[in-house]
Design brief:
Blueprint (H helix, E strand, L loop, with lengths): L5 E5 H15 L3 E5 L1 H5 L3 H8 L5 E4 L2 H9 L6 E3 L8 H8 L1 E5 L2 H8 L9 E4 L14 H9 L9 E3 L12 H12 L6 E3 L3 H6 L7 E2 L25 E13 L4 E2 L5 E2 L4 E7 L15 E4 L2 E6 L6 E5 L11 E5 L5 H8 L3 H6 L7 E4 L3
Parallel strand pairs: 1-18, 2-3, 2-9, 3-4, 4-5, 5-6, 6-7, 7-8
Antiparallel strand pairs: 1-10, 10-13, 10-17, 11-12, 13-16, 14-15, 14-17, 15-16
Length: about 350
């Protein structure tokens, strides 16, 4: 018998979310972002499921790209942070990796490389996020230098990244869009702006290439209900089972540091799930999880391998009863809010110890 903690990955939901992204893109293309081990879902299996649909994939770095190539993924892969050393340009040329270009050093590395096949370049423009990207006034110069090089494919994409697309009350996205459009005047090239919130909520950000990540995994980056975000289907269900049951009396406590004390006669269920399995340690008392489909509160401190739940109100709970930490009826976003973080972090910090079980592969 295996330990019951596992992450069920529904590839049918993944395909549904990708097709939603494609429908929102209109005539644009959808590059599927699978960085950070596909947001904790398993990069290789997710890439295999998306490759028949997506014209390209996106990762953070060359190590992530090589993992996919070594697993047999053949479609183009964009390195979203570009190269870190000059020799990576040669690898990118040989492996059909596309390069995001963020700074002068990366431009010079491409122009000075000894490569047989030109590389596909995405030129990143800093429109206000101030992390990476060339200045708007540098766009024409850098574009022309790249365009004139035999080392660069003629099809250059101009890109930027939205800082506040998830905040529908902020006007900063409109500021960034205006900055981008002004910076690229007179240049005939494809554009890429929309990340997940941009694709869901900002039609004017949808361009020739769109780069959804988080939404592909079925959780909306937008706060509250949204007409498009509500169509997403969670891909990961984190589940386990009850492995212990006991009755405690008023005044008795549960778990490390006596952080929860019973105020009534209580039935406590122990579950094979802890921060070693990806359940956030700082999740507070009272956070709901599902036991046999019914919401019950977390009680006591989350430990490495176990959590404890108050199942006093439930009948017929027994060792082996199913526990759902997040999925369809309790989303990763909901759990993240309770734990004082965001759904992105909850998913991407899923450790390798937790087995991924892939369903609906075809």
């Amino acid at each position: 018998m295996a330990r019951p903690a596992q992450a069920i990955i529904d590839l049918a939901a993944l395909r549904h979310n990708y097709l939603l992204a494609q429908s929102l893109s209109g005539d644009g293309q959808v590059l599927a972002v699978v960085k950070a081990n596909a947001y904790g879902h398993g990069a290789v299996e997710i890439a295999r499921a998306l490759e028949p649909l997506a014209p390209a994939l996106g990762v953070a770095c060359i190590e992530e790209a090589m993992e996919l190539r070594n697993a047999g993924i053949q479609c183009p892969i964009l390195l979203l942070e570009g190269t870190f050393t000059a020799d990576e340009v040669e690898v990118a040329s040989a492996q059909s990796f596309w390069l995001m270009v963020e700074n002068t050093q990366q431009v010079e590395a491409i122009l000075g490389a000894s490569i047989e096949a030109p590389v596909r370049v995405w030129l990143k423009i800093d429109t206000g996020m101030h992390r990476l990207g060339i200045l708007p006034e540098q766009v024409a110069e850098y574009y022309q230098r790249l365009r004139a090089s035999f080392n660069v494919n003629d099809d250059i994409t101009l890109a930027t990244h939205l800082a506040s697309g998830d905040d529908l009350d902020s006007d900063f996205t409109e500021v960034q869009l205006a900055c981008f459009d002004q910076a690229v005047v007179g240049i005939k090239a494809s554009h890429s702006i929309a990340n997940s919130p941009g694709l869901l909520a900002w039609p004017q950000a949808r361009r020739g290439w769109n780069r959804p990540g988080f939404m592909l995994y079925g959780n909306s980056p937008l706060a509250g209900s949204h007409p498009e975000g509500d169509k997403l289907k969670p891909v990961m269900t984190l589940k386990s089972s009850v492995i212990g049951l006991r009755d405690i009396q008023p005044g008795e406590s549960v778990g490390y540091a006596n952080s929860w004390t019973a105020e009534r006669p209580s039935r406590i269920a122990t579950v094979a799930m802890g921060y070693g399995d990806g359940f956030p340690r700082h999740t507070p008392n009272g956070t709901p999880v599902l036991v046999d489909g019914q919401r019950v509160p977390l009680v006591g401190r989350v430990s490495m391998d176990m959590i404890t739940l108050d199942v006093t109100e439930l009948d017929n709970i027994e060792i082996g009863s199913e526990v759902i930490l997040w999925g369809v009826d309790i989303t990763a976003n909901e759990l993240a809010i309770s734990a004082g973080t965001i759904g992105y972090e909850v998913l991407t910090r899923m450790p390798l110890r937790t087995p991924r079980v892939y369903i609906n592969k075809s």
